[in-house]
Amino acid sequence: MKHKALYGTHDILPDESFKWQSFEDKLKSIFVLYNYKEIRTPIFEETELFTRSIGQETDIVQKEMYTFFDQGKRSITLRPEGTAGVVRAYLEHNLGEKSPLVKLFYFGSMFRQERPQKGRLRQFNQFGIEAIGSADPSLDAEIIGMAARICQEVGITEFKLHLNSIGCPVCRPVHRDKLLEFMRGKVGDVCDDCKTRFMRNPLRMFDCKKKECADLLKDAPVMIDFLCEECRTHYRQVKNYLSGLEVNYFEDPRLVRGLDYYTRTAFEIKSSLLGSQDTLCGGGRYDLLVEELGGTPTPAIGFAAGMERFILVLQMQKDLMIEEKKIKLFIATLGDEAKVFASKLCKDLRQKNIACDTDYLQRSLKAQMKEANRQNAEKVLIIGEEEMKKGKAVLRDMQTGEQKEIGLGEVEQILD
Ligand code: HAM
Question: Model-level pTM?
């Protein structure tokens, strides 16, 4: 074959896409309950938007972005995540002037040039939410609770919510110094990536999956022990609200995020079914990002989740929650007259919002019945040449196997 989908990209084929549709419908209904409205931003933006928000020293900016120069010699990047574009749109359209708290959700493809593996792609799909305009810890809890509820409602049976606070520019430098001091004698033994992290962003060493690095960091000082008074109060309040909402969480002092814009609350939901790429969704506060991108100081919080990873887990759990939508009726025909009748009947039924289909390949009755079965049709209407002459047809219930003769004029009424 001449052309193949690029490494790390994938097609969502018809026998998969219904799962995506059902998943998206469920998500949208949950977003509406929490009063979030959809935003759609472009899939490419100025490169500088991402370098400034995600952070120069992150893996994403250092080695994963799809960046190119357009005809006008501008540096453009395919979005590696959604938050930066949403904040850019929030500022560009003065959304904060219309409402002090703006609650948004989005779906979309993201692009990262990572080494593909199970649950890790180069073009992947996220859903995410961003709430811009409040520093209130009750909002953190509502959003974390929503992420957990999504997992439950779509049918993820096993997941764990990890929670941490990664402080603010007041308390972080104190921890950073302590961490550097702790690691100084050990840095020769960490992996090459961690050597770079040690120089540029030591907190990120906690995110290393390599055992030798994790072992060396076992007793390292953690951010949570160095929080300033305000961050500590905020963290305590978030936990209180979470308990009030009966959301189970696991305090994980080693949880750090791969993007630099976070302050205070950081959280992730993980599933052990996923293997090494075990994070279903991640997010947290980014109280300084709006200002960093040119706005007035505006606190914000959000999260995003990998759709492919959700689908993967649901598949491993045998997809209990996702059922393919069936067509109500398949019309099997024999002879030209029956075919003409079927064509008009399909039109009338569809006008009444009844999903149906018929044969376009002039197949035998047996082959048409097989097709109806493959299509998962609820019922089959069989119109043979003889029946057509008598104005009759046979209606078969595909689940029970029951058959009855009905008048051709009765079909719409019976199915309605
Ligand atoms: P992130 O942790 O980089 O955060 O990504 C969120 C989720 O996207 C991950 O937990 C994972 O499920 C999925 N994901 C990330 N990379 C890949 C990949 N290469 N292949 C498949 N799935 C992937 C963000 O993107 C932040 N913008 C989240 C956020 C929103 N924080 C505040 N608001």
Answer: 0.92
- Ligand 1 probe mutation, 81, 105, 121, 261, most atoms within 8 A of CB: 81
**For the chain, the helix, strand and coil percentages under 3-state DSSP, each to the nearest 5:** 45, 20, 35
In the chain the domains, ranked by start, together with CATH numbers, are 14-171+227-316 (3.30.930.10), 329-415 (3.40.50.800)
Report how far residue 258's alpha carbon sits from residue 283's, in angstroms, rounded to the nearest whole number.
Answer: 10
CA–centroid distance for 23 within its chain:
9
User: Measuring from each residue's beta carbon to the nearest atom of ligand 1, which residues come in under 6 Å?
Assistant: 81-83, 112, 114, 119-121, 124, 126, 128, 130, 258-259, 279-284, 286, 302-306, 308-309
Q: What is the pLDDT along the chain (416 residues), one digit of tens a residue?
A: 799 999 999 999 998 898 899 899 999 999 999 999 999 999 999 999 999 999 998 999 999 999 999 999 999 999 999 999 999 999 999 999 989 999 999 999 999 999 999 999 999 999 999 999 999 999 999 999 999 999 999 989 899 999 999 999 999 999 999 999 999 989 899 999 899 889 888 998 998 888 889 999 999 999 999 999 999 999 999 999 999 999 999 999 999 999 999 999 999 999 999 988 899 999 999 999 999 999 999 999 999 999 999 999 998 887 555 667 789 999 999 999 999 999 999 999 999 999 999 999 999 999 999 999 999 999 999 999 998 999 999 999 999 999 999 999 999 888 87
Which residue owns the Cα nearest ligand 1 atom 2?
A: 282
- Torsional sign, CA 348, 350, 355, 356: positive
